[in-house]
Specification:
Layout lengths: L6 E2 L5 E6 L25 H11 L6 E6 L9 H9 L4 E8 L5 H7 L5 E7 L6 H11 L4 E6 L4 H7 L5 E4 L13 H10 L6 E6 L2 E6 H4 L8 E3 L2 E4 L5 E3 L17 E2 L14 E3 L1
Parallel strand pairs: 2-3, 2-11, 3-4, 4-5, 5-6, 6-7
Antiparallel strand pairs: 1-8, 1-14, 8-9, 10-13, 10-14, 11-12
The structure holds iron/sulfur cluster (2 copies).
């Protein structure tokens, strides 16, 4: 789609994606970790402590996603959460999990009102037992059920009752190519509009809401982008999600705009970042 817009995106806090494990009980065919998984291990205690210290250089509000692989396979997860919880600039700690473990594992992690759980639906490993566990936990914690969209999406939506959910469109990985059926996409656009993301775009002063599915086809190459999403890899390196270079120890570059070098943006990189020509 020809990009006729002059500005796009949403103002938001800094977001860290902290990968504390690159192992998982599952082997989903579309796993995004296939792009990054290199060591088949968990973050070590020394690296963990260094990361916690570096986060104290950040003097504005931030949110942090704890993920993997499967983060609950790192036995230091509770310790990590306790440390993050004491950082006054850390406003939200979001544990992204496949919810495979016993429910008590998750209860023990729910130590403050900063804690959120994003529980992902993986169609290749779905069972009614997991859904029952999620329904129970929904009454005790802040959760979002993140439904990875495939052909089973409508039947799972019918089963989940009042669990809050969002739809997540799969992205290409080095081992998986997305191939959605147009009928499925049209049905989602028509019937499930409140469960997909909308990104504001402007042409001069006129605002438009563009859904995530259509953002996939817009190129922002050459635009300025205030991409404040920072990956922290298993070795403790901090990298802007769209730049392949390490940030300085004090993380002072986090809020500097970068020039987009990609033909297309996607939900992993972050449609929602503020960007302008
Ligand atoms: S549950 Fe998540 S991390 Fe594990 S294999 Fe599936 S997509 Fe990858
Ligand atoms: S691909 Fe990255 S740099 Fe380009 S617009 Fe998207 S988030 Fe910004």
């Amino acid at each position: 789609m020809q990009n006729k817009y002059t500005k796009a995106g949403i103002s938001h806090n800094i977001v860290f994606n902290w990968y504390i494990s690159d192992i998982c009980q599952y082997h989903c065919s579309y796993c995004y970790a296939n792009n990054i998984s290199i060591l088949n291990t968990k973050m070590s205690k020394n690296i963990e402590e260094l990361v916690i210290k570096r986060l104290y250089f950040v003097k504005e509000d931030f949110e942090i996603n704890i993920l993997g692989g499967e983060p609950t396979l790192n036995t230091r997860l509770k310790n990590i959460i306790q440390n993050l919880n004491t950082n006054k600039y850390c406003k939200k700690i979001n544990i992204i999990t496949n919810f495979h473990k016993d429910i008590d594992t998750y209860r023990e992690l729910n130590i403050s009102n900063k804690i959120y759980f994003t529980i992902s639906y993986h169609p290749e490993y779905y069972s009614k037992k997991v859904l029952q566990k999620i329904k129970k936990f929904n009454t005790e914690a802040n959760i979002i059920f993140l439904i990875n969209v495939d052909n089973s999406v409508f039947s799972i939506i019918d089963e989940i009752g009042d669990i809050p959910y969002e739809l997540n469109f799969l992205t290409n990985t080095i081992t998986f190519s997305v191939n959605y059926d147009n009928k499925l996409l049209s049905k989602i656009k028509d019937k499930y509009t409140t469960h997909i993301g909308y990104i504001p775009h402007w042409i001069e002063n006129t605002k438009y809401s563009i859904n995530e599915m259509d953002c996939n086809t817009i190129s922002y190459k050459g635009w300025h982008c205030l991409n404040k999403t920072i990956d922290i890899d298993i070795l403790g390196n901090f990298k802007n999600i769209c730049e392949n270079k390490n940030l300085s120890i004090t993380l002072k570059e986090i809020c500097e705009p970068i020039i987009c070098k990609y033909e297309y943006c996607d939900s992993c990189k972050g449609f929602y970042h503020e960007k302008w020509r």
